[in-house]
Design brief:
binds pyridoxal-5'-phosphate, 43% helix, alpha/beta
């Protein structure tokens, strides 16, 4: 129960504002004045922003600086009240979304599908985020396979490192997800093992560019050939890398082919709200041709409320987000994205080099903008415990234990950030040596998963955390 007027000191890290600002269990009888609301919320935003403006937080905050964000917020305000589905009343919505899709398709070499089949033309939709883009592609494959091949027990095969959004889509849409473990030491999936899992119910295979845990690009060329050979779908998850790898490629880094140049690729997701530097709440899902997208749409003509249809999982969506996404793309232009990629890769290269020089740490694979590492000599979770005391927030990986740091623009705004991280990591390694044989704090949660009982315990903890989040 909430006590609005509690005098007790605030100790709950989930609810630090309790007691400090008013807590509302019900809509207040009388409205508050605007200024007090603005003051309160700007205080929260300022304090929370200060945490990642240090540049010490991995991933999470993808934006191209305060000035860029202010510009997008202004654009958002012009269309914040518009529902994208109402494009008859607001044709700007059709302009923004069709052009976002076209710009993303061209960035990802969509034009090359014509070389494979002159009738193909990359198309897609704007969604609310990577998970929805992935879910929509999975739904499209499921419904296409059912309509065209009578498949009623669909299966999708993916490397174990692919994002849980595929598992979520599998659960929502009744698709069996077959996971193929990645092989050590290079942490990439063996395409032969993927092919071995294909059966008459397989509707698609999945690869990532790059995957979330290690940022690595799967052996996409081989997976593409396998998809073509078996005449099945092939989705490349570019949610994380889709809006940065094209620029890293253009900068001259040696990257494998990861986009529509792959002949077998039938769909790709790429998040505008990550390295597209748009506001949170948009992503793009692209298809090789409209025969896939057609199966993503939902329509329900038989309803007293009128003929209903929606292109994505959402019903109403804010036109402000589409407008801001469009504005981000055209404001930054290729030049702006290249500049950003160069700045982030300068930091990434320095980090890679520095970590390589720490004998106890081993880089995982060939990193680009996500730097992941593990250790055979020390417990990297002890290193994480130490790094936390210095304000760093790494992403914690498991099975096997490892850490990653995903470089974003905030790092580029703090001088010498890579050198500082490497220096702290060296100290962290020494700290870990002193803690050998003890259990790291980080292990408390991350040491549990991987067994049936352990997974159940983690599920309980996670659901409990959500309950706590939604409690007043
Ligand atoms: C590789 C990859 N795929 C999918 C997603 C899911 O994206 P979202 O959180 O926007 O739903 C993420 C998120 O980090 C990701 O890294």
């Amino acid at each position: 129960m909430t006590d609005n007027h509690s005098e007790e000191p605030v100790t709950d890290p989930f609810k630090p504002y309790k007691g400090r600002f008013e807590t509302y269990e019900a809509i207040p009888e009388k409205g508050r004045d605007k200024d007090s609301i603005i003051n309160e919320l700007s205080t929260m935003a300022k304090e929370e922003n200060a945490k990642w403006k240090t540049g010490r937080v991995s991933g999470s905050f993808y934006h191209a600086g305060d000035e860029h964000r202010a510009f997008l917020n202004k654009i958002f305000s012009f269309f914040s009240h518009v529902n994208t589905i109402q494009f008859d009343l607001c044709p700007s919505m059709s302009k923004f979304e069709s052009e976002i899709i076209s710009m993303a398709a061209n960035m990802l070499n969509g034009r090359s599908v014509k070389d494979h089949n002159p009738e193909d033309h990359v198309c897609g939709t704007v969604t609310s985020g990577g998970s929805e883009s992935i879910a929509m592609a999975m739904k499209a494959y499921r419904d296409k396979a059912r309509a065209e091949n009578g498949i009623t027990s669909p299966e999708v095969i993916m490397p174990k490192t692919a994002h849980p959004a595929f598992q979520k889509a599998g659960l929502y849409f009744g698709i069996k997800i077959v996971e193929v473990p990645v092989d050590l030491p290079d942490f990439r999936v063996d395409p032969e093992k993927v092919e071995a899992e294909i059966n008459e119910n397989t509707i698609a295979i999945v690869g990532s560019a790059g995957n979330y845990p290690y940022g690595l690009i799967d052996p996409l060329e081989d997976l593409s050939d396998i998809a073509l050979k078996h005449n099945i779908g092939f989705h490349v998850d570019g949610c994380l890398g889709g809006f940065i790898l094209p620029w890293i490629d253009k900068l001259g880094y040696n990257l494998p082919v990861f986009d529509f140049r792959l002949k077998g690729l039938t769909s790709m997701s790429a998040d505008t709200h990550k390295y597209g530097f748009a506001l949170k709440g948009t992503s793009v899902v692209l298809y090789r041709n409209t025969s896939f997208r057609r199966h993503q749409y939902f329509s329900f003509p038989d309803w007293p409320g009128g003929i209903y249809a929606s292109p994505t999982a959402a019903g109403s969506r804010s036109g402000g987000l589409s407008a801001a996404t469009w504005a981000s793309l055209v404001y930054l232009g290729e030049e702006g994205y290249l500049r950003a990629a160069r700045a982030m890769m300068t930091i990434s290269d320095e980090l890679k080099k520095g970590i390589e020089e720490i004998p106890e740490l081993t880089l995982i694979g060939e990193p680009t903008f996500v730097i992941s590492f593990r250790s055979e000599d020390i417990d990297v979770f002890h290193v994480n415990d130490f790094m936390k005391t210095k304000g760093w927030r790494f992403n914690i990986l498991q099975l096997p234990p490892a850490l990653h740091f995903c470089v974003t623009m905030p790092q580029t705004e703090v001088p010498d950030i890579a050198a500082r991280m490497v220096a702290d990591l060296k100290e962290g390694v020494e700290y870990a040596k002193t803690k050998a044989g003890t259990t790291a704090e980080t292990t408390a949660l991350y040491g549990l998963a991987g067994t049936l009982e352990g997974n159940q315990a983690v599920n309980e903890i996670l659901c409990g955390a959500f309950d706590l989040m939604y409690s007043i």
